[in-house]
Amino acid sequence: MLFVCEAVQTMKRFLIACTLLAVIIPAAVPEHAAPLARTGTYTDKVPAEGALRPEWAPIFSEAFRPGTSIEFELYVPKTYDPSKPAGILVYISPSRSGAIPNTWKRVIDQRNLIWVSVDHSGNDRTVQRRMAEALASADYVRNHYRTDETRTYIAGFSGGGRMASIISYYFADLFEGALYICGVNTFPEQDPVAIARMRMNRFVFLTGTEDFNEDDTRSVFDRYKAAGMDGIKIMVVQNLHHELPRGKDFDTAMDWLDQPPGP
């Protein structure tokens, strides 16, 4: 989508700064707070100011207007057990709602994941803001639940998938895998350090035979392959239009991300 590409071009200096922080300098993981007992589906609205790590605040200084809040949308399995740290799935929606599809809840339950997204963070928001909200989402979960630091994933649909692909490039050390659903961008830059870090992660490119982004998705998949990415998988679902996949296909994608690094 052009709106993503144009926004990335206007943010070149901003994104280079992200690379320096996320790829060259190891990111500090926030300390855990006392685990919440809250499970199921719920939302929590917090001030944007203070939601980001201090070292990121200068980078995202123009992402939010004063007084802005971030409205997190969460799904935590009722079986959540602090003694068995959960993985995190950060989801970026192309629309105003970040709610989890009902057919995906069983997959989240069985795979011991916590779903987090942001409401009102669709394609009409700036790239800077959506990046900041995705990063804040992962830290929100870490600050309230016991999590497995080796299982932090990012996913998105359509324009949200394109955002996920930008974030997984610049913040490859924060997300061990990514799921791009019916939307993905190629590398915004050809930084060998960033690409080398991405080779340690796993990626799923999910599209459908009726998706108008199928050819584009295949093309970006080929670019990942040419860049030496071994942990990549493409799923072309029969009769899937430009829409979210069924639970079983989502489960297949998550199974790939949950495999150990490597081919």
Structure overview:
This protein has 263 residues and is of the alpha/beta class. The protein has one domain (2-257): Rossmann fold (3-Layer(aba) Sandwich), CATH 3.40.50. It is built from 8 helices and 8 strands. The protein has an 8-stranded mixed β-sheet, with helices on both faces. α3 (105-110) links the parallel β3 and β4 (113-118). The radius of gyration is 17 Å and the shape is globular. The two termini are 30 Å apart.
Give the distance, in angstroms, between the N- and C-terminal Cα atoms.
30 Å
**What would you call the quaternary organization?**
single chain
From the spread of the alpha carbons, the general shape counts as globular
* Strands side by side in the biggest sheet: 1-2-4-3-5-6-7-8
Number of helices: 8
Query: How would you spell out the order of helices and strands?
Result: HHEEEHEHEHEHEHEH
Percentage of β-strand residues? 15-25%
Low-pLDDT windows of residues = 1-35
| Rg on CA atoms, Å | 17 Å
CATH superfamily: Alpha/Beta hydrolase fold, catalytic domain
**Helix share bin:** 25-40%
Strand element count? 8
Number of structural domains: 1
| CATH domain class | Alpha Beta
Q: Which CATH architecture is right?
A: 3-Layer(aba) Sandwich
Q: Mind describing the biggest β-sheet?
A: 8 strands, mixed
CATH topology: Rossmann fold
Helices and strands: which structural class? alpha/beta
Q: Write down the overall mean pLDDT.
A: 88
